[in-house]
User: What shape does this take?
Amino acid sequence: MTERIDHTLRGSWTAITGSLPPHALKWLHKRIGVDARTPARSPSVSPSGLGDEARAALAAVVGPGHVRVDRESRLGRAGGLSYLDLLRQRGTGELPAPDGVVLPGSPDEVVAVLRACVEHDVAVVPFGGGTSVVGGVAALRGDKAAVVALDLSRLNRLVEVDPVSRTVVLQAGVTAPRAERLLAPHGFTLGHVPQSYERATIGGFAATRSAGQASSGYGRFEDMVEGLRLATPVGEWRLGAAPASAAGPDLKQLVVGSEGVLGVITEVRLRVRRKPKVERYEGFVLDGWERGQRLVRELAQDRVLADVTRLSDVDETAVSLALSGGWKTAAMKGYLKARQVSEPCLLILGWHGASESEVSRRRADTLRGRRLLSLGRPLGEAWRHGRFNGPRQRDALMEIGVCVETLETAAHWSRISELRAAVRGALKDALGDCVVMCHISHAYETGASLYFTAIAARDVADPVGQWQVAKAAASEAIAGLGTITHHHAVGADHAPYLESEIGGLGVDVLTSVKRTLDPTGVLNPGKLLPGGLASLRDR
Amino acid sequence: MTERIDHTLRGSWTAITGSLPPHALKWLHKRIGVDARTPARSPSVSPSGLGDEARAALAAVVGPGHVRVDRESRLGRAGGLSYLDLLRQRGTGELPAPDGVVLPGSPDEVVAVLRACVEHDVAVVPFGGGTSVVGGVAALRGDKAAVVALDLSRLNRLVEVDPVSRTVVLQAGVTAPRAERLLAPHGFTLGHVPQSYERATIGGFAATRSAGQASSGYGRFEDMVEGLRLATPVGEWRLGAAPASAAGPDLKQLVVGSEGVLGVITEVRLRVRRKPKVERYEGFVLDGWERGQRLVRELAQDRVLADVTRLSDVDETAVSLALSGGWKTAAMKGYLKARQVSEPCLLILGWHGASESEVSRRRADTLRGRRLLSLGRPLGEAWRHGRFNGPRQRDALMEIGVCVETLETAAHWSRISELRAAVRGALKDALGDCVVMCHISHAYETGASLYFTAIAARDVADPVGQWQVAKAAASEAIAGLGTITHHHAVGADHAPYLESEIGGLGVDVLTSVKRTLDPTGVLNPGKLLPGGLASLRDR
Assistant: This one.
């Protein structure tokens, strides 16, 4: 067995389990030829390089108990949850661990920590739930003498509730479930439910432009951000005077998505909504991807999307049916055949409301005049109950030697099908015998996201290289057709593709902002701006 | 009579008229004591300071016929349409005119013009419809040898239509009515109808974060922006890969609202909607401001706002009734008295849709369970037909010696009434015998805009100072409660208040971006960043 990483510090997931039902194992064997468990090794961690003076300076700010250099603490903040991260945590390849972990207790302490890090030449990786799948929390030190993880878990307060304006101020380290627990007594919800929900934090959502499964109804996280406190090496920056403004560029949108390279988000003022009293989830089926994506587009452009709107392609639908197994699946297949649905694409719709009648009305608005076949509420409820299982299933698949990873993009509607085909083709070419599944989970009037899952037998000789090649092929296929990331963010993994999306001038602009807020470049080296302060081009 | 400014180059307004109906004149005399026409003088314009070499360099880019230095062309781009601008155009105070007018014919020519301006030390004021009411197009030269207005009226094309994604690319100089004419054959509309509609341009909307009268339904202009081309002195910057992205900060939102100080917007990719087949406008009345603002808040928070949602306070409602006059007004007053409405606040709601049934359904959604008194469709239609008359009425009022100006802000709901009272109080203290009216025209889940109109007898001895004192008092009242501007932008007039809203670090960040894109500071001196490149603070 692999060594247990300190996951308790990251949230509330249950321990990793290696069990998959027999029919799923059989299916995997048949489809991608997996047949062996792969051995895991303990990851090696080099000794902490945090100097005594730096450690003392940090301890002077946060207290000695909140600067940790033990192996367990450092391993617990060594990278995120990408497939490559998980491989590294299982002893494959190099796992860069931070030299120490600093746990500040207030926004002011974060500013003081950053100043101490500047003084002692220590790089800082802001660390919330540690759920990045793009290397966003990799413990890279850049050109600094050492690197610490800035664990924000002590910034866990609900600071303010404004029930009239329906805004709240939450600290950056509050996890999504804790946010909901804190808001519930006030009758409010964020409605933000990404797959990382169980561990991810408010600060991380804001720093990465997170989108949740109900973003069609509640909006992307950046749509909820009314104000921010950002700690930087040159002081604190507060933004957010009003719900909307024409007072120059929207600088909140420069901080949202800054991924810890411009500062550390310590508090966020957020728009909240009344917690729904009724939620209704329902499964539908459409015949073929083209019909499915066209329907979702029409719902978006007619502005009658359900709060949750998620369309699986034929392959993802088939895998869902195969993996769930049992008599219900057989019955479903018979039903679809009888209805002459030859290429079933599953559509999950979910409506939230204050009452049954409101939800019924909204459902009627969505479905009015549409041609789609309802598969009933149990299928919708089944999706809802399993909605956070993806990471757990991945852990189980990893244990039996599967290469499994997801990636995502977004594009305008006129390019959606071309983009899907291009990414599928690139992944299949690179991985050979594999399964590639795709769904739309976020729809807009002008376009949508595409979310891919790839499954292949792990290349035991070069498991890291296997995925790196496939990921590069997919990223090249995306460039020019869509965005390199719809909601996973840039981190280290997408950084090489940023310039082709925002232009050389975009990189220059971000670098000049970084130079202003982080003049010595201590903040999150190697993320977003791959060259750090040196990214500014000579002209 | 005042000299006619070259308004034909600015759009399609009919000539300024000085006529007000007799009952309106009588009311004005009674309320604010206006009794005299004030004489207007021709504005004086100093000789053009554009050197021969600069002029030749600009002519080499755009052609000799598109570089103008005649008095008429220069006066036609001398400032915008604020009350102080209009006073200056009538010969009161200094009217800074550009040294020349340059009319580029393509986005590439704009880049080349900027390079020529850098080489010849010429400041550039991007000029669209010239409708700024905050000094955004004042011909200020900063520390440059000369200043030209960069008139974008030749960038007047619809470049691309993507009917599937429902996006279009429009050039910056396209006026709002022309945009609608270009989109109509495709069945689309922007739905963007600010009061400046008849003259204002796509580039101006984007550069100033414009909001239209139907922004509750169609969104603010920045919500429609899917992509941008920005000409800068260091080259062209293109943005906008997808409808949504997590690829770092949203740099589009740094360009939107940049007011010509970071670059010149030359093309904008915009989300469009199906042109509505049915529009229904209706007047309602609520008793008292508090009830009215609470209702609008509930509509916003329940997400059932009409596309147009506009609540007038008691004073604005009374003035509307007084100025419209006639038997209908008398009948209305009788009706309201009979219904025991003691403090009538007019609410205009307007719904757009593809069919009568859709509009009826949306109206039902808005009104379900609400207590408000309908005054019928004629009142709604009357508002709709007069919706662009504000500027014309102001011109008429100016002719008879009235000091008349508007200002606006936005705040979270919990501060709305306090903010309204504070601004009213400040204006009344400063102006003495005056009328101050207010309405909410843009509502959000977390707050709303407040739009004020002040009318007083002009101080003949110091007309400019009279308004400057009042405006400063209102701006001081706003600071700390709301934003200095909800949709009028910053320009020169609000620039002194920007730092208190975005912080010293915000000014530093914007300045560092300007330094990257406009290293010699030729772009729109004196706007947004009052200190230009020197705004970056020493620390």
Remarks:
- The longest strand of chain A covers residues 402-412.
- Chain A touches chain B through 85 residues (CB under 8 Å).
- The mean pLDDT of chain A is 92.
